[in-house]
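Hi there. Long-time user, first ticket. I'm pasting a complex I've been working with (about 766 residues overall). I'd like to know whether the download I got is complete or cut off, because the file seemed smaller than I expected. Thanks.
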Amino acid sequence: MKALILVGGFGTRLRPLTLSWPKPLVEFCNKAIILHQIEALVKAGVKDIVLAVNYRPEVMVSVLKKTEEELGITITFSVENEPLDTAGPLALARDILGKDDSPFFVLNADVTCTYPFEAFRDFHLAHGCEGSIMVTKVAEPSNYGVVVTKPGTTIIDRFVEKPVEFVGNRINAGIYIFHPKVLDRIELRPTSIEKEVFPAIVADGQLHSYDLQGFWMDVGQPKDYIAGTCLYLSHLTATHSSLLSDPTKNKWVYGGNVLVDPTAEVDPTAVLGPNVVIGAGVKIGAGVRLQRCIILSNAVVRDHAWVANSIVGWNSNVGRWTRVENITVLGDDVTIKDELYVNGASVLPHKSISTSITEPRIVM
Amino acid sequence: MAVTKGVILVGGPSKGTRMRPLSLDCPKPLLPIAGKPMIWHPLAALAQVSGLVEIIIIGFYEDSVMSGFIKDAKREFPNITITYLREYRPLGTAGGLYHFRDSILRAPTPQHIFICNIDVACSFPLAEMMTLHSKHRGVGTILSVTVKKETATQYGCIVTDPETQQMVHYVEKPDSWISNMVNGGVYLFDKTLFDEIKVAMDDKTARAAEDPLVKPDEILRLEQDVIVPLAAAKKMYVYETKSFWRQMKTAASAVTASSLYLNNFAKTSPELLAKPSASIISPTFIDPTASIDPTAKIGPNVAIGPHVRIGKGARVKDAIIMEGSVLEQHSCVLNSIVGTDCHIGPWARVDGAPEPEAEVKGQISVTVLATEVTLAPETLVRSCIVLPNKSLDRNSANQVLL
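Hi, the file is complete. Here it is re-exported in full:
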């Protein structure tokens, strides 16, 4: 089987992190975002993966070269010379996606969920139609495109964009599976899969919806990246994952959902949790208090610091008695001096901060 | 040697409202500044003056408010007579002095009288003032200080003859800029001051008889009613201090004044300060009854009152922690005043901005927690004024919490 991942552009919404790393390589719960997806695809029998990109960062090529070898798959970079929106990249990768009659997956790179690709594939093969889209239930559907099915079936009847009255609460989760004949509907030009391709398939009664169980989150921006991290950690807790730090063995775990890379050092007097991710080589000092935050690899959080609702970038340094909160994002190699207060700052890489940032702002 | 006496003008409970919320529970003269009551600083300086036999404190606080301090001061300075004289009603700075003239002038009759306002923090260069005073033939010598042009009009502005140090003009809080040299709130007068006050008083009574807008009361202000005519008559001289000086009108200024005094202690009387160590950065004052965890980091510019308890890994800097307060582990207090019997939870943060030179209306810099304020674990209070007996479990910034 085959898959296409819509990576797109520079991931500007996740800056300042994406100034240092291409977005697919930014760690999500200690693993590159794209690796979560590739591993799940491979588990469902995918051998050929196409990355639809607007640019081709060398670092991504070399990282994924290793992945190719380890997993025994082929990863192809399909580079768009002009942005082709969400459907155009399928036409561009036609040679790979249409090389045989097996179906192919399409997914948005920003989406995190449990990736139940095997069940999704089985569902798709069972109904035998042209396409299937994953849907997820949301509490407030009015900001999304809602998927409405024909009564008593999984066949999609119509899409209602930003509904004013309640028509359902299932929304497009950004994960699809298609028979290769769908490629005949797509030309090589900027085309929207949601607005142009789906309505045509729906008109032919060939598109089914599949209910995604469990969490779903678009992690394309810092606030949602943090929220998505919490959802993923709760999923690990619910499945009794051995990746999480065991509160009965580590007295510094408070409230659970704490994921610590084995190479990180955590002082026993620190208090971590709930919802904390500590990356490789990170050092957490004495009396540090962390909650709802992500500390990326090789960062240092010094004694008595307090961090909540924030992302501390790679190789960054949070000073002693410093308080960091309110969706602060520190880029790569940022230093926050001792005793400061940092409220909702976005700090670009390699900055040294020596005075408090009391109101949310971007530090260039 | 000529007999000298000192007078400290402390005002009363209806004054010093800008010191709220601290002055709600502690009279302003007794607020701890650098670990000592505010009034202790001028008193200790006066006690060092050679030939000074008596210090008279004038104000309209009840006797019981001042009696504890007077008792302690008498014990600390046994060779000096220390008395508190209570005005039956506010008489103005000069009115109060005149009202108690017999007490001030009684034997041994002083040749010179120092007068200090309660609300200035400075090095009290009293010996230098005396040296200048004995060289001129004026009635009084005033301590002056040069301030920034933007703030000068908030003070009593002085114009001098730079050759003779003679005061040629004085205006209290002028509308427009006159001079960067301002009244430092410390004076040295000959005993003939009382003749000058008498003249000013008669003058006022005479004006009251002619002008119905002038009230025929005893209220007489030292600055406007006495120093202005003395300047006009070329009877005042000016000693300009180059050392530290700060007015203490607002609660925020207490932190600044405290740190100025602590830095001065480091030079003049380091024995008053806590010994520097890995966890204590000088200058810091720690009351001997306070308990500080060895992993906490304290200072510089910190004054910690009696029975305060500071937990593991706590951080205190540029702050006053008043009697009986508790700072739990890993809490952090910066640029703030923590009032009596407050409780700061673990990882809570009490944070302020340093006091600006010129006050901006409606903008809070230093955080002030009044008596018995409780802060829940991990909460942040930044640039807030918190009134007594509040329990805070949410973050707050830039506001007054009633």
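A couple of notes from our side: The radius of gyration of chain B is 22 Å. The CA atoms of residues 140 and 189 of chain B lie 4 Å apart.
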